[in-house]
Each structure stands twice: as structure tokens, then as C-alpha cells.
Amino acid sequence: MASSSLKKSKNFIFYNLNLKSKFLIPDRTSAITNSLFHHRLLHSISSPPSPPVPKYASYSQLNSAIFELACLRRRLHSTTSVSNDISQLAVEPTSHQVLDFPGGKVKFTQKLIFTSNSTEERVHCYRVLDENGQPFTDIDSSLKISKELAVQMYTNMVTLEVMDTIFYESQRQGRISFYATTTGEEAINIASAAALDSKDFVFPQYREPGVLLWRGFTLQEFANQLFGNKYEYGKGRQMPIHYGSRKHNYITVASTVATQIPHAVGAAYSLKMENQDSCVITYFGDGGTSTADFHAAMNFAAVMEVPVIFFCRNNGWAISTPVDEQFRSDGVVVKGKAYGVPSIRIDGNDALAIYNAVNEARKMAIKEQTPVLIEALTYRAGHHTTSDDSTRYRSTDEIERWRGDQNPVKRFRKWIESKGWWNDVAESEYRSSIRKQVAQAIQVAERIEKPPVAEMFNDVYDIPPKNLKEQEVFVRKTVKKHTEDYPSDVPL
Ligand SMILES: Cc1ncc(C[n+]2csc(CCOP(=O)(O)OP(=O)(O)O)c2C)c(N)n1
Ligand SMILES: [Mg+2]
């Protein structure tokens, strides 16, 4: 049964492939061929055809056929009329007739115009502070950021910077196994967190520890997790940087790219069902938008009208893959429009722009029960993780440029200094105090013993199955036999 319907749909695909490749040959794009094509296609949709199926002996032959089709499509773009502006298609009806179609009335046109793949005119980027930390306009009347909040945002960004430097070094010294910095993305972390309410749920990727820091996770809690000691909430079973906190509504990090996005949408849907006055925010990178999870989640959220903020940190790189090898669209913001999700592109290195955008997105999400997409343009100014050396695939000039003028922490500091809320003395006192606190947290975390071996086998099954019990016995035996190969601070 399944195989016969699979065969039918395969036939259908081959049939249309065949039709399309004929249609797409430039000398056949006359009006006659065109209307014939439509007639045949409509016919094929209304009554499944049983056409002669081209013979593809293998998947590689099928792939070549698809590739050929893609090439023909590209050629077509250079020979046929293409509109650069999608709105032009909407405003140029050449007929008074309309098609009453689900989703709204569609006007007809006799112009054969395809939407363009050109990204020449890009969606603009919302910014409040220029590179010298000065607002473009007089923002004070509209922006409600008090001195206290601004200083708190700034000091949290500095804490994040200091944490990153010291924890990164401790990995280099072999004291922890792994680390990922947020360098260059401090404003995204802190300013977005500042605009949320603590009852909003966070479904993070792995480059947003600043959101947890803002919510009150202590330096000691960060260090305990990184060292995997017995006070770590994952009981030593997680990778370092997989922070999570029930208290702070921060769902545990999973490094499997983008899996948090559909989870976030599900959680937001439950908030909607319970009429809660809160929303969900999920963070992900540009790389995350190349996954099926991102697209399924966006579509579900749009259709079910759930209060979720999709926060994309477009930092230019997914490990060594630059964004122009990741997608051909104008970044990520345009994908929101495709799914019917209100969307905005913002400067991810401008804390005030981020704060305003998330503040507004939160209000929209809750009041209008709608998803919102934010694409923050930024740059991953550090290596991907401690397992990476990014100078192997990008120039140091590029990195330095982003670490200089574009640095979000320096930019925000210029603004609060210009307001008279911060100065050099406060800066050096604060930095030195945080350095001491991080070093102290590391010393404490390092001395605390690891969770017992038994924890490896807990918390999944109510009654552990036979094979798991056997594995536990085997682990204990092996550790006892080779004590020199196992850490002495892990109780058996
Ligand atoms: C499902 C899955 N595929 C691949 C990987 C390997 N991987 C880890 S991080 C990463 C790149 C993610 O890039 P992006 O989403 O842009 O986030 P960024 O690291 O730039 O913040 C990849 C491919 C993974 N962890 N999970
Ligand atoms: Mg990225």
C-alpha cells in the first residue's frame, strides 16, 4: 500500500520534472506554450496522470536531472522578465477579475513576471546608537532606560566579557574540557534579556549565557557547571556550557543545532492555551535557520498564533561556513515575511536597538498573540568554540575590524559615559572586582568533588532496565581494575 502510493507520487514528480524542463527551455516560453503548460499542469493536479515515466536507473541520474533543472531555471532568469520588487507584482493587476482564494483575493495579471532572487536592495537595519555611541536622534523622550538600568546592562556585559576571557583560559590550561565564548555578542545577550520579564521562558542555543547571568545565575553556578562538580544541576552528565536553570526559566542548552526552536514554539503554545501573560524567546544562529526545525517551527507558530520571539543571531558564520554559503536570500529577516510572521532586522551590536526591539516584540507577542522574528546582525568575534581555530578560514583583518569600531561593549560604554553615568575609575574598579570573583569561583568549583558514578544511570528510567544495570556493574568493575586511568574525585 505504502509502496504503491510512493510509486504514484514518484511518477507524479517525474512527470512534472519532465514537463517543467520542457517548459523552461527559453525558446519555448511563448504565450502558447505557456498556456499549454498551465493547462496540462492544472489537469495533472486535478486528475493524477499516468504519463510515460522517464527511466532513471539510479538516484545519481535523478540528481543529475534535478541539477539540470536548476541550471535551466538560472538561465531562465537571465532571459525572462524578472521583477526586483515583489510589491510591484502586487500592484500591477492588468485585469479586473480576481481569484477568491483561501488567504485572500488574488488579482490577475497578464505580465509574465517572476519574483527576483536579487538581494541588491536589502531590508534596512534598525539602529539607535552610531559607532561612536551617539544616538541618531534625540532618543531620551521615547526610550525609557534609566541610569540604573543602563549601568546594570553595561556591568553585565563587562561581567560576560571577563567570564569569557577567564573560562576560555582555564580550558586552554586543561582545567575544563570545552568552552564557547560570546565575544562580539555581549549586547545581544544582555540587552535582549533586560527587555524580557523573568517569567518569560528562554530556549537558548549555546551562545547566550548572558541571558542567564542577567536573570541571577551566579558566577559560582556557572563555574560548577563548567567543572561538572556535584553541585551542577545536570549532575555532571552534560557538556560544559550546557547550562540550565528551572529557577530562572532557562531551558537546558542542547548543542544539537536548532532543536530548541520547535520546543520553544510548543512551550509558547501552552502559554497561549493557559492564557498566560508571558511569552517564550528562542535564540539561534544563522546556521540554525538552515535546518528543517527552524522552518517547521516558524510555520507552526504563525498558523497557531503563538507568543514566541524568534531571535536570530546572524553572526556571519556557522563554524567555518560563511552566511553566503548558507543561504541566497537577503539574510533571515525575509523568511519571516514568507511565513507571515512580523519581522525586523536590527543592529546586533547596538544595545539600545536590541532593547527596544525585544521590548516591542514582547508586547506584540503577548498582546496580539503572534510570533515575531528578530534578525540581529552581528559578528562572531571569537573562535566558534575551544575546538576551533577561526584564523584557518577567515582573515585576521576581518576579525579585528569587528573587534574594533563595531565592538558592542565599547559602543554602549561611550553612550553611558556621554550621559555622565560611567567613567574610567568605575570601569577599572568593576573589572578588577569581577576578575577576582571569577577566579574565586573557579578555585571553589575545582575543589568540589564530582557527582558519584551512580548518577550516570539515574533519572531516565523509574525502574532501570536489565541492560542498564549490567552496564553499571561493568563500569564499577572497570574503574576498580584501572584506578590509575580514572579521576580519584569521582565517588564510585
Ligand atoms: C544538528 C546538528 N548539526 C550539526 C552540528 C555541528 N554544529 C555545531 S555548531 C554548528 C554551527 C552553528 O552555527 P550558528 O547556528 O550560526 O551558530 P553560531 O555558532 O554561529 O553562534 C554546527 C554545524 C550540531 N551541533 N548539530
Ligand atoms: Mg552563526
UniProtKB/TrEMBL annotation:
<comment type="subunit">
    <text>Heterotetramer of alpha and beta chains.</text>
</comment>
<dbReference type="InterPro" id="IPR050771">
    <property type="entry name" value="Alpha-ketoacid_DH_E1_comp"/>
</dbReference>
<dbReference type="Pfam" id="PF00676">
    <property type="entry name" value="E1_dh"/>
</dbReference>
<dbReference type="GO" id="GO:0005759">
    <property type="term" value="C:mitochondrial matrix"/>
</dbReference>
<keyword id="KW-0496">Mitochondrion</keyword>
<keyword id="KW-0479">Metal-binding</keyword>
<protein>
    <recommendedName>
        <fullName>3-methyl-2-oxobutanoate dehydrogenase (2-methylpropanoyl-transferring)</fullName>
        <ecNumber>1.2.4.4</ecNumber>
    </recommendedName>
</protein>
<dbReference type="InterPro" id="IPR001017">
    <property type="entry name" value="DH_E1"/>
</dbReference>
<dbReference type="InterPro" id="IPR029061">
    <property type="entry name" value="THDP-binding"/>
</dbReference>
<feature type="domain" description="Dehydrogenase E1 component">
    <location>
        <begin position="155"/>
        <end position="452"/>
    </location>
</feature>
<dbReference type="GO" id="GO:0009083">
    <property type="term" value="P:branched-chain amino acid catabolic process"/>
</dbReference>
<keyword id="KW-0560">Oxidoreductase</keyword>
<comment type="similarity">
    <text>Belongs to the BCKDHA family.</text>
</comment>
<keyword id="KW-0630">Potassium</keyword>
<dbReference type="GO" id="GO:0003863">
    <property type="term" value="F:branched-chain 2-oxo acid dehydrogenase activity"/>
</dbReference>
<keyword id="KW-0809">Transit peptide</keyword>
<dbReference type="GO" id="GO:0046872">
    <property type="term" value="F:metal ion binding"/>
</dbReference>
